[in-house]
Request: fold
Amino acid sequence: MFRDGKGTSRDLLGTVLTQAADGGLLLIGQDGRLWTIEPPQLDSRADQQSEFEPLRLDQQGLALKAELGERFEIVTTKHYVVATSAGKPYAAWCASLFERLYSAFQNYWKQRGMDLDEPEFPLIAIVLKNEREFATFATRDAGADAATAKGYYSVEHNRIVLYDLTATGNGPATTATEISRRLGANPFNIATVVHEATHQIAFNSGLHTRLADNPLWVTEGMAMFFETPDLTSRTGWRTVGQINDLRQKQFQEYLAKRRKPDSLSTLIASDARFTDAELAGDAYAEAWALTYYLAKSKKEAYAGYLRELSQKPRLVWDKPSDRVSQFQQALGNDLRTIDADFVRYMRKLK
Ligand SMILES: [Zn+2]
Reply:
């Protein structure tokens, strides 16, 4: 038994991932949610004899209905449990998109010598009826910033939350063709959904570890590398690693007007540029560009770097100098040479 951040008393069946010297715990529940519990929050704990088991898809569906309300419908596929207030057709369309992305992601890395894991937990998506319902839910679930997005992935909850982007005055779209047609009209919106789904897949296939020191340029670069949506195929996914037009345009502008000589080192040393509203746009664009460059022209070294990062312990936060030296170990000591090569490569793509 413990009291969560809001003071609510909770009885949780889970397994301890990390125990800090002061008695603080990092716990994972059967739904894959992570809980950090400080010693004063912990009222009691009892060891179970039985082995820890994640919820199955059907159990996870019931748990989501219990949490969200009976009006939510559940759609399940091989890896996903979608709880929705937007009607089953849209939820099924999303689940099918996610499954194709999932396969494309696994295949992409397999071809590069990285055998990723099957997810330990069902991958959860909550699809809300419209923007208004999403904003209310997101504010409570993840804070005011999330409310203005088109969707988000929560590392702690391990789920993605989004809403029906096809909802218009004409009512919901009911066929896959109509859904694709309406979404095709605004590819940027659906790219956000694919972006968040990529985060979830990357954190559930062993490529990243949740609550470990993952440089933001790596996780965001990865999501942007995969975010170009493929709405044309119902069976495959052909667009992995295409040039991301929006990010490329911004990166070229950044190169031409604002990029400083130490831009590569500030990007890899800390997340500061991503959390500064004025610098974030350029930081995202550069993270995409660096990921693109490494994935295309330094395949093995980049995969080796990702493999190193995936082994990092949870709740240990690196210093900027550690991040730089990890990057150098995998990709080369001389950052100025790497930078010059990177910039030359990206200029040629224009
Ligand atoms: Zn992201």
